[in-house]
Amino acid sequence: MTFINYASREINCKIVYYGPGLCGKTTNLQFIYDSTAAQARGKLISLATEADRTLFFDFMPLELGTVRGFKTRFHLYTVPGQVFYEASRKLILKGVDGVVFVADSQEERMDANIESLHNLEENLQTYGYELMKLPYVLQLNKRDLPNVIATGELTSELQRKGEPVIEAVASTGAGVFDTLKAVAKQVLTELRKA
Amino acid sequence: MVRVNVTHELRRSIYWNFEIVRTESLRRQSIGWTAPPDFSASSIQSIEPADMPNTPIVILEAQFHHIKALLARLRLDSAARLVVLVDKDGQQIAVHGDLGDLDTTSLASLAAGNVAATGGMAKLIGENEFPTLSHEGEKESIHICVIGRVLLLVVFDDRSSLGLVKLRSKQLSHELAKVFNAIEQDSAAACANSSLPFSGITDEEIDSLFSPA
User: Distance between CA B101 and CA A116 in Å, rounded?
Assistant: First the structure.
């Protein structure tokens, strides 16, 4: 849910990184946090288990700059990817303005990608959102690993509506900012239509 | 525990009364009688708002200053350290009080997550939501009051008490609910009239955000 405050001249939007367990959602946020100037970002909050798996969500506010006198701030969230955190995963989607689906390119994770994507569509529907109408980017992560599926095959399996597809290696940062930029642009473009 | 039951009963009672009025209203409409304005859809929304579609929420300067004034009053009346108003999605709307180096953006996000999680638990046990949450620490404590689509969060220490904070928060909640009903209506109108600040934004302006300065 975009928030526009005329008094503080701010526009706040919410972007959620979604995907199966261990696909690299938190790694995306961690790289953005590490690579952004301190004045442009807030703290990276991670609600994680002792084994460093996301328990509830990761959160990070990021300021992109000013448009028409309004500061544009994006609140970046990740969901817990593990299947049994379904209840909390759904909560994070409330009020979302844009979604990044982080797919794990490894062959053995294909079923998990498909299951997670269906889960995303279902959970969005519970809030009255439709994936087909929402700003959305598909990120094909872990492209550096040896056992990855070809991008064409992954795209034909996971792409839903002609959304931007970005290859990434979140651990090194490759494709991370391209993904963020692609989804943020769509969110701002949606605001123009509002 | 008693608190939750009483609130639940109260809410049931409100709905029950509303159902009676609505049924009576429909009966009267059928004989050419108009329902009294007190029971319009908007007054019911302030009690239990439906999930809003993804329409931007626009807060105008006058509304923001009104909210800030209400928060200032609550802070004074409850002898609190800090009062924060947060959207249920985790966006901080306004803050008043002794911030120090407190990261209120993170606080807002975590408060929303907290309310969402306890709301999920409430649904599992057959409740709609828990309208208030309190966390008591050794020195500082937090009280959160759910008001429709916003959360009123009060940080206080031993200069105040949970009872006082709860009382004052509840007293203010009706006024805040009214303000947010107005904000939601104005936001919907602004979207319908395409009068948002980004309505005429160009591709170049969007691109400029992502270009190195």
Answer: 39
